[in-house]
Design goal:
The chain is mainly beta. 4% of the residues lie in helices and 37% in strands. The protein is built from 3 helices and 26 strands.
Length: 427
Amino acid sequence: MAESDPRKRTGRRPLLRGLAAAVLAAGLLVAGTAPGYGTGATPPSPTAPGLQFTPLTAAVMTKPTPFRATDGRTHLSYELLVTNALSSSSSVRLDRVEVRDARDHRVIGSLSGQALADAANPVGDPLPGADATSPAPPGPTPTVIEGSQQWIIWIDLALDRGQRAPEVLEHHLSGAIVTPSGSSPFEETVQITPTGRRAPLNLGAPVRPGTWYSSESCCGNTHHRRGLAPINGRFYVPQRFAIDWYKVGEEGQTWEGDPTRLDSYLSYRQPVVASAAGRVVQVQDGLPDQTPPVTPPVPPIEDTVGNHVTVEVEPGRYLLYAHLKPGSLKVREGDRVESGQVLGQIGNSGNSTTPHLHFQVMTTPEFFPTDSPPFTFRKFRVVGQVEPRIWDDNIGLQPTGVLPITPSPNAGPHRAKYPLDREVLEF
């Protein structure tokens, strides 16, 4: 005989009523933590995640795609957008983030302690170290996500040499729910995510042969890598793997003479060449060069990359050549270009302080909005590295234009590799 009272049928409260209480109830979500877990000790063997309330929700912002870099290792660089789903009175102390192979739950990388603090920040916080003089300050430890707050975790994994990237990743989060009455440990497995199987584009140089400084490339706390952009109601990281290129002279100089003059910069008027054959899908010209070395006002969104050329080289893969000199562009929309063909000259247009070439791969013809997948270059030689963070906004503010180039552990010839941040190389 059917019963009319739903509580008699289920013996439980309505599903969503008292969610916060359910999350905090011992035994429903939170689990005892093995001794030392979250402090560097090896956790117990995980089991497949079951049905549970989770204090943190998470979303991956791109398909993690493996690529090889000049350190000889396979890298995975992507973002985990994490939200505290609890009320404002309940914070979550995040102690450890593990990236695992979803097939066998083997840990392939983890963040905890200061490393986690340095790789995480609340959405909307300014990028640490964004001014020209001070390094990025360390993040606060422990990492505490307040109720209803959203954080981004910047994941940059470098796998052991010879280790293949898993086909599917999962993310194991652990820590404690903290309330005025005490704390309760939690563990959750979230975001089972396939890795990208599409090989990164392997490209020719976007500039003529010579010595070049690879600035703001992956991976670390750079404006490109950690440039979170809210566009049309969604978050993007449109410059994740972008590289700013500066011509370097025989004495290691990027400029000589008066740094307030465009002609003082060795990059200015250098030819920009097609890294691969394709079809020109977007051209913008006519924007003036900015006057160095003062950071210009932020331009309208459509002028961010200044004068530029975008070339479609494969379905869903576009090459962007940006901040070009006005009047120097040699192609029009619809043109077919061949690898090595001159497209224009390096300038200082758009959101640019000193002359350089902004180069990247995009998933759309437009810079905003787009995703930024990795790529490699067919052939180059690393000749050094620059330890201090010298980039577009401060390169003209240095005492001289000579870069403090030191020996690189990655020195030597490279094929089908991605140049890491602040390497000096020869094409």
